[in-house]
What we know:
2 copies of one chain form a homodimer.
Chain A: H1 9-15, H2 23-43, H3 47-63, H4 70-77, H5 80-88, E1 114-115, E2 124-132, E3 143-147, E4 168-172, E5 178-184, E6 189-190, H6 196-203, E7 209-210, E8 214-219, E9 226-232, E10 251-252, E11 255-257, E12 276-280, E13 283-284
Parallel strand pairs in A: 1-5, 2-12, 2-13, 9-10
Antiparallel strand pairs in A: 2-5, 3-4, 3-8, 6-7, 8-9, 11-12
Amino acid sequence: MRNIDKDNITDVFMSYFGPDTDPRLRQVMESLVRHLHGFAREVGLTHAEWQTGIEFLERAGRISDDKRHEFVLLSDVLGLSSLVDMINSDPAGTSSSVLGPFHIAGAPPLPMGGDMKRDFGGPLLLVRGRVTAPDGTPIAGAELDIWQTAPNGMYSSQDPEQDLYSFHGIQTTGPDGRFGFTTVRPVSYTVPTDGPVGDILNATGRHPWRPSHLHFIVKAKGFRTLVTEIFPDDDPYLDEDTVFGVRSDLIMHYDECPPEAFPDGFALSGKVKEPFLSASFDLKLVPETPAA
Amino acid sequence: MRNIDKDNITDVFMSYFGPDTDPRLRQVMESLVRHLHGFAREVGLTHAEWQTGIEFLERAGRISDDKRHEFVLLSDVLGLSSLVDMINSDPAGTSSSVLGPFHIAGAPPLPMGGDMKRDFGGPLLLVRGRVTAPDGTPIAGAELDIWQTAPNGMYSSQDPEQDLYSFHGIQTTGPDGRFGFTTVRPVSYTVPTDGPVGDILNATGRHPWRPSHLHFIVKAKGFRTLVTEIFPDDDPYLDEDTVFGVRSDLIMHYDECPPEAFPDGFALSGKVKEPFLSASFDLKLVPETPAA
């Protein structure tokens, strides 16, 4: 095609596809490129703006490494991550919410009743609940990959003062589907603003805060993997999470309890001398294939 | 907002903008994110597909450096670069065409009549013409930044066998607006396929070929900078340039000439013993602000 113009270029793009292209790939690429071209036409994108975009992507590439995932953060602050979560959420299960850029694989096992708080300061939080099917049937042997910030608002991968796996653990539910552990109450924190994504937030007058949360990836055989977070109902940023992660069913109340109410069967049982916080909730997984 | 859903998330995104946001930035970001969200909803983007996209961007970041610009190549093969060229082209001037990922700044001066072919094999190409305003008035002192492939199909930045600036030069037009130099006839070549962009081409059954071309960036005071390429009319890939760069007015005929027809005033004048090719064309620049 020698007479490509701004109105036919998307069709010319599609005409280049080979006949053996996977149909789903063709569908995704066509939609992506129609929207990309539509955007450029709609705003009359200039060369200087295009160059700014290219440099943005190159900068995001340079700042990324095994621990820093600037493209995930970009997807998060543009609402794409949350939109993908919502598109793929099944209302029969717990809502999914953003993975975020700070998950690291290979966390150590966290035994049932184990403690992640160790000697860190801040309020002790007791977390208990069950992993269940939509009808409430407990799921034994479900694996919970749990991670959160330290009291300084940083994930271990951001913080040279922490061990790589501090506030990371993998717990497996017992025959009753139960999980339970102690940790420190997570804090509200800011997403990293020292990279190109931070420049977007600054330029658009947005704050970088996220309400405090505990992250979970929950896996169980025969069920769809759930990536989610839970939030306390008193966090000041619940209504303006910069990555759009809050869903009503993920907001929990943290009960304040006297030390004598601390239950048995935990690593800290008998050692708690101060009031503590307690959060109880179930995480509902949706079967991989709907029941007949 | 706690009740974000897949239908209101784009509006919530816009509600986060601060009141002092630059109006053009707000317009560009709103259109970009509406289209991005529209794409995800339209195809029902899955988490696995989102992850593939993130990994694609991270890989493109890792393979990029000062000489390799994978994000530019991505923009090129998706037709975005050409679309931006066409949106910003003024029909009164020469069409613009893709910058491509191989331009390197700081090329050495190429004197009027100078030679870039040196000892490289392949057909000698004499290039002559004028830089003019739309009405044909010559533009003196216009700067042409010229670059092309070597006969092996590689740009110097891709090829350890070449000097960094081989087949790169900057020529300034004389009082008559004229430029003129000799070089080797550029060859058709493939864009790099060893990175993530090559994977897109493979997966969609597309070839990686570009028709042969000479690149120009033409700058002159008071005129809009022109980024363009010229193509010979006998190239087999004119109708299927993988980066959508061909425009009718950029297709030139290369005349075959006997050695005795080689003109005076060139570095090679009097030294040409074989038939050579000759291309003559003008490059028209559009004033920065339209004449009243």
